[in-house]
Design goal:
The protein is mostly beta strands. Strands 28, 30, 34, 36, 37 and 38 form a six-stranded mixed sheet that branches. Strands 14, 15, 16, 17 and 18 form a five-stranded antiparallel sheet that branches. It has a five-stranded antiparallel sheet with strand order 39-48-47-42-45, with no helix packed on it. A hairpin with a 6-residue loop joins strand 6 and strand 7. The two termini are 20 Å apart.
């Protein structure tokens, strides 16, 4: 696995038109398609005519990712190639938000089912079902905490009274804690990378932006002319860009300074249509993989727009992004002043840890450095990086990127593992779920998979299907009478298992053969569930198992 840092401000050309996308342009998701809007002018270019509900920039800023509101899919717009389907969401519903998870994938909140999903390597994983432990009405945005890597998600209710609970999900344990509860109805919550404060769009009792500390106390607040539908934070300039609708129903984008001063108001010159999401082209100039493996070398790849031959350097830090280092022109290097930071600032490479942190960008504005996380580094350590280019044309002669972090992970080569992906189909007990008994399949042992949430009466037989391959794409089972269900793997073996009180297990002996280490196989369960659907059969989520030593 590589830890990749990409700083890209590539030019985006719309299909069939000689209109280029400039860094800093707004990308607006509407029911009539994706729009590119020039700040300050309201000039609009239509990128697609496909309904878009939520939107984000890709990790390398070379494509625009979006999810239409009405067809439960995730799609990508690429210049010159148009729109492509990336994946769909079994079970229907639409997304409340998308956010990048480094270059390894993205996270999504699914509003209709109140679930947190991850998409990595073309597969969909259910990370958490928020409906089970909480009494909520709906999910809002999802954001990764820069310092810890955990996730923030606002959930809100309207009965008995409008209120918001901000949740933190620990990425390592998947445990949920409440950061705060508030009376205002915060549908959108983001994090200001400069201060660590939370920026929340309030709908009731009056539309406003609230800046809160981590305990939920309001640090500052200012009124907005209408409901804020989405917030896009520029992490380099620390500006808040808000998508609203004015009193005439016309879309507008408001740019605020961190203190609430209105900097710019852009009226979007389009017919009055429903607007959903907002992102800024080129607003994420630095991104990375979520984890770095102890003792393994990882490439650090920099790619700056229009920067061929310019000197660059990369700064690292272990103490978080705050308070950072203030520059005379008001910008900030978003890494705390610690020993790691000083070493990379004053001395460049860290002996036996990094190479190539300083150098000259090639003809394409690119360079590659390397980092090898020392074995003594504690697992879970959070490391931040910021890329800087010396550019005489810029203020103070430097370009400063936003920070991005990765967590240190143990070397798990040869380790057994099991994880689920996809979603269960409907079921009379809520849908069958797979889980491992133990960490995963190990050579020379017996591995067991448990199936839970099966119907208990009458006692019904279940079946485990096993395969070395997955279906791409997965198969919709609706046409054979199993509405809302998907088959994720290509059935190679079908094995009956006994349902005892709503639970069933399937076991397999793994031969003591080291050549099997790293081999993966997939499982999915079917269960007889009379009356559930036309076929009377339910289906579980899928499991991915990797044999370890």
């Amino acid at each position: 696995m590589r830890v990749m840092f990409t700083v890209a401000l590539a030019t985006l050309v719309t299909v069939g038109a000689a209109v280029s996308q400039d860094p800093g342009d707004y990308i607006v998701a509407t029911t009539d398609g994706l729009l590119a809007v020039k700040p300050g002018t309201g000039t609009v270019t239509t990128l697609t005519t496909m309904d878009a509900g939520v939107v984000m920039m890709s990790a390398d800023n070379r494509s625009i990712e979006f999810a239409p509101e009405n067809d439960a899919t995730y799609r990508r717009y690429r210049p010159g190639a148009g729109v492509e389907l990336v994946t769909d969401f079994p079970g229907g519903g639409y997304l409340a938000d998308l956010t990048l998870e480094g270059t390894s994938g993205f996270l999504a909140t699914r509003r209709s089912a109140n679930q947190l999903l991850a998409f990595r390597g073309g597969r969909q994983y259910l990370l958490f079902d928020l409906l089970a432990p909480l009494s909520i009405d709906n999910l809002g945005s999802v954001r990764t905490d820069l310092e810890t890597g955990d996730w923030f998600i606002p959930v809100w209710r309207q009965v008995p009274a409008t209120a918001t609970r901000l949740l933190r999900i620990d990425r390592a344990t998947m445990s949920v804690t409440t950061v705060f509860e508030a009376t205002p109805d915060y549908h959108v919550v983001d994090e200001d990378p400069r201060t660590g404060h939370l920026v929340a769009a309030r709908w009731y009792p009056t539309p406003a932006i609230d800046v809160l500390d981590r305990s939920g106390q309001v640090v500052r607040s200012w009124a907005t002319p209408s409901f804020v539908q989405d917030i896009a934070i520029d992490p380099v300039r620390s500006q808040f860009h808000c998508l609203v609708r004015n009193t005439s129903g016309q879309p507008e984008i408001l740019a605020y300074a961190a203190d609430g001063t209105l900097l710019e108001q852009t009226s979007v010159a389009i017919p009055v249509i429903e607007t959903e999401g907002l992102t800024i082209y080129g607003s994420r100039p630095l991104s990375s993989e979520a984890t770095a493996v102890v003792g393994k070398p990882h490439a650090l790849e920099c790619a700056f727009h229009n920067a061929a031959g310019l000197p660059y350097f990369i700064l690292l830090g272990q103490s978080g992004p705050r308070p950072g280092v203030a520059l005379p022109d008001g910008r900030r290097v978003h890494i705390a002043d610690d020993a790691y930071f000083r070493q990379t600032l004053l001395g460049g490479d860290i002996p036996n840890v990094t190479t190539g942190l300083r150098g000259t960008l090639d003809a394409n504005g690119r360079a590659t450095a390397w980092i090898t996380v020392p074995p003594a580094t504690a697992v879970g350590t959070r490391i931040l990086a910021t890329a800087i280019v010396l550019d005489p044309a810029e203020s103070l002669g430097v370009r400063v990127s936003n920070p991005w972090g990765f967590s240190v992970a143990p070397d798990t080569a040869g380790a057994a593992r099991f994880r689920t992906f996809g979603l269960s189909g409907p079921g009379s007990m809520g849908g069958a779920k797979l889980s491992p008994v133990g960490p995963g399949p190990v050579i020379g042992t017996t591995f067991t998979v448990r199936v839970t949430q099966l119907p208990t009466s009458p006692a019904n037989l279940a079946f485990m299907i096993v395969s070395p391959t997955v279906l791409t794409p997965e198969a919709d089972l609706g046409p054979i009478g199993m509405r809302g269900s998907r088959l994720y793997i290509a059935p190679t073996a079908v094995i009956p298992v006994q349902n005892a009180g709503g639970n069933a297990t399937w076991s397999v002996a793994i031969p003591n053969d080291r050549n099997l280490v790293g081999t993966e196989f997939f499982t999915q369960a079917f269960v007889l569930d009379p009356g559930l659907n036309a076929l009377g059969v339910g289906v579980s989520d899928a499991g991915e198992a990797v044999i370890g030593r």
